[in-house]
Design goal:
Length: 367
């Protein structure tokens, strides 16, 4: 894995900390990932590596990632904070909120700041320093001065799966996955009970019902990553005609009702993230864009038909280590633009994907 990265780690020991003591470190460690649920789920392998070498792991997550953080094995507690330099709808910088966070961060001996290639770890590193954290690790190509003790420098021209990129930081900081851990995404077990109401809606009972339906999740956090609602609705109808039971999920009730259109089970607005994981685990296939539930499917081992807009590279963000059919023009003009709203008229990268292609991909994954 490291051979695919241009990596230069520059650990700087915390003042007065002998090497032998560092090697036996069992501190309370903070792990930060401040963006969305999918990003937090991809941090799972790095979190488990930290938990193997720490007596307690506390995760600092944003409001959109908190529920995912609570699902991660190895997380003992979650602190929620909305970062003005990370959040997609950023709040203003407020001295009282910043001061409150610094107070919450006091008492940690060590911290790992997990970020994407386009995010800076240094604002949070500064707050951690003000809180008295002794050892801070992050990926940073920018000069960090005295803000970082482990500066992990990565060649960002090489596309590496996000989960692996974060795991290399944990390793640079001295944390390794436990023996037998294969580094896949995972969620805390047992998953929440989907309950009598949801179970009756799905028409499932026990484990023997796994693979009994196809889940279609039409929503995403950014319009540029969204397959048109009309195409979702058409695909649902054709999947039903092809003999599949279909379940439509998501927070947006109007959207899920439109897509389900009376021929599929509509769970819009009816599941927590943990319950959604349980619903997806029982599915044969998930159909979704580049959004949190696609990574949730990877964490429970369900194959994915990925309607992937190339605004970010699929090599980094496609469902990780789970059978996947990737649909969408990965060479469209919007490629690598990181756009939230499509910059190209007609949204060709995804609008040209047909419902027939989705049905064919579902068949392929369910064989």
């Amino acid at each position: 894995m490291n051979g695919r990265l241009g990596v230069l780690s520059r650990p700087r020991p915390a003042a007065g900390e002998p090497a032998a003591q560092r090697s036996r470190r069992r501190e309370r460690v903070l792990v930060a990932r401040l963006d969305d649920a999918g990003d937090v789920l991809l941090a799972g392998p790095a979190v488990r590596a930290v938990r193997e070498g720490a007596r307690e792991v506390v995760m600092l997550a944003g409001p959109n990632g908190r529920a995912a953080a609570e699902l991660l094995p190895g997380v003992d507690r979650v602190i929620e904070w909305r970062a003005p330099w990370i959040d997609g709808d950023p709040p203003p910088v407020d001295v009282d909120r910043v001061t409150e966070l610094v107070q919450q961060l006091r008492g940690f001996g060590e911290a790992l700041i997990l970020t994407s290639f386009h995010q800076s770890a240094l604002p949070l590193a500064l707050l951690l320093r003000l809180a008295g954290v002794r050892r801070i690790a992050a990926i940073s190509n920018d000069y960090p001065g005295s803000l970082l003790d482990v500066r992990h420098v990565v060649d960002e021209s090489v596309d590496v799966p996000e989960a692996e990129r974060m795991l290399t930081l944990a390793r640079a900081a001295g944390f390794e996955l436990p023996p037998g851990d294969d580094g896949r995404l995972a969620v805390r077990r047992p998953l929440p009970d989907i309950g009598r109401d949801l179970g009756q809606s799905l028409g499932v009972g026990g484990a023997a019902d796994a693979g009994a339906y196809v889940v279609v999740h039409p929503g995403t956090s950014a319009p540029a990553r969204t397959w048109p609602a009309e195409r979702h609705r058409q695909a649902v109808r054709e999947l039903v005609e092809d003999g599949h039971r279909v379940v439509v999920t998501g927070k947006e009730r109007e959207l899920t009702a439109f897509v389900a259109h009376g021929v599929a089970v509509d769970l819009g607005g009816r599941t927590t993230l943990g319950q959604l994981a349980a619903v997806i685990e029982r599915a044969g296939v998930l159909v979704a864009g580049n959004t949190g539930p696609a990574h949730l499917a990877a964490a429970v081992g369900t194959p994915v038909v990925s309607l992937f807009a190339p605004v970010v590279p699929a090599a980094r963000w496609a469902p990780y280590r789970v059978p996947t059919v990737l649909l969408g023009d990965q060479h469209a003009p919007c490629r690598l633009s990181r756009a939230r709203s499509c910059p190209v008229a007609g949204h060709p990268c995804l609008s040209e994907v047909s419902s027939e292609q989705v049905v064919k991909a579902v068949r392929e994954l369910m064989q």
